[in-house]
Amino acid sequence: MPTVAELVRERANRFGPIPFDEFVELALYAPEVGFYESGGAAGGDARGGDFLTSPSIGPLFGAVLARALDSWWETLGRPDSFVVIEAAASSGDLCRAVLAASPACLPALRYLLVERSERLRALQPAHLPVEPAAHVLGPVAPSDEEDDEGARVLPGGGPRVASLPDLPAGPLVGVVIANELLDNIPFALLERGGPDAGWLEVRVTADLAETTVPASPALAARAELLAPTASPGARIPIQARAADWLRIALRTLSRGRVVVVDYAVDATADLASRPVGEWVRTYRSGARGGSPLDRPGEQDITCEVCIDQLSAVAAPAENRSQAQFLAAHGLDDLVAAARAQWEHGAATGSLESLKAKSRVSEAGALTDPTGLGAFRVLEWTVPQSE
């Protein structure tokens, strides 16, 4: 099996230096040898992972998301079925935490784990009751039954869980959530040339070095629109694939919302004023890696998400920090309960007390203004299709 470096060399020798987004695609997702296909994963070095995400820290993020799902389900009129599509679901940590929190929407819940990595999808059934997607998305029979208090019993028999390599065909009623997906979607890299050079496209040569070529008219026009005052030598990403993902996600729903959680910047022009190494980052074995061109396939490659490029598809209805999002959906109540349990059981050192202590620590990490707490949570609402 050829390595990522060998795949890059073969393509560059045949077609010339390859676009940066094509390089990132190979480095992250080439079958068997790309980073995510050969063992790369979230979790931090202590857990054998390469980087931390909110779900990999512990179950608290999922517990708060479960509350958010209940709120959104109520807003939609408590539909049965209520489809939650988690894009970039990895091995299923977030889904497990949501189910463990037992949200009120559980009987109606149809949870779709969307993960393009075949290796990561293969890990999901070990911890989740994964069924064929055709069963999970099949028709739901009506029910007139009532429980002991006279409330209507939901007929859905949920939760039901399925796994897919791509976003499903819609239209569906529910939520699409993408936690730290868009920063991993391949992007073009452009550089402002000198006074007579215009915009240049960064490409990768057969020997894994950078070179630049004149950008196509379409790329150059897009770059000029996004960063008209960029200085010579400044670089920006063109995140057309991330915008395409958002467009597809919005079309997947007839009613509901798309929720994106990621590290992001309001305007592409802001990146032009910063060194590229600040906003194109690599991670390996729980720490920052080297240049994106170093040891391709052995490190994650990420890029800050440009909100203005997503807004060209549709402006988000909500744009707030992760800390603000978690507070709005009950984080403080969960932490207060955990702290009381921890203090009550501290003398005994019980397992439940230790779990409560861990939950308090998780909250600090999830809301850290210099880390995960500064991530942006963007929400797009989708009305009923006519």
Topology, please?
Elements: H1 4-15, E1 18-19, H2 20-29, H3 54-57, H4 60-75, E2 82-87, H5 93-100, E3 109-114, H6 118-121, E4 130-131, H7 133-136, E5 160-164, E6 172-179, E7 188-192, E8 199-204, E9 210-214, H8 217-226, E10 235-238, H9 240-252, E11 253-262, E12 264-265, H10 268-272, H11 276-279, E13 280-284, E14 287-288, E15 300-303, E16 305-306, H12 307-311, E17 318-321, H13 322-328, H14 331-345, H15 351-366, E18 376-382
Parallel strand pairs: 2-3, 2-6, 3-5, 4-5, 6-11, 12-16
Antiparallel strand pairs: 1-8, 7-8, 7-10, 8-9, 11-18, 13-14, 13-15, 17-18
Helix pairs in contact: 4-5, 14-15
Low-pLDDT regions: 43-48, 147-154
Helix fraction bin: 25-40%
Instruction: Give the mean pLDDT.
Output: 89
Overall 3D shape: globular
Instruction: Describe the main β-sheet briefly.
Output: 8 strands, mixed
Alpha-beta content class: alpha/beta
Count of runs of 4 or more consecutive helical residues: 15
Tell me the Rg in angstroms.
22 Å
**Side-by-side strand order of the widest sheet:** 4-5-3-2-6-11-18-17
The CATH class designation of the domain at 45-185 and 241-330 and 369-382 is: Alpha Beta
The count of β-strands is: 18
Strand content: 15-25%
Distance between the termini: 50 Å
Instruction: Give me the CATH fold name of the domain at 45-185 and 241-330 and 369-382.
Output: Rossmann fold
Examine the secondary-structure arrangement and name the CATH architecture of the domain at 45-185 and 241-330 and 369-382. 3-Layer(aba) Sandwich
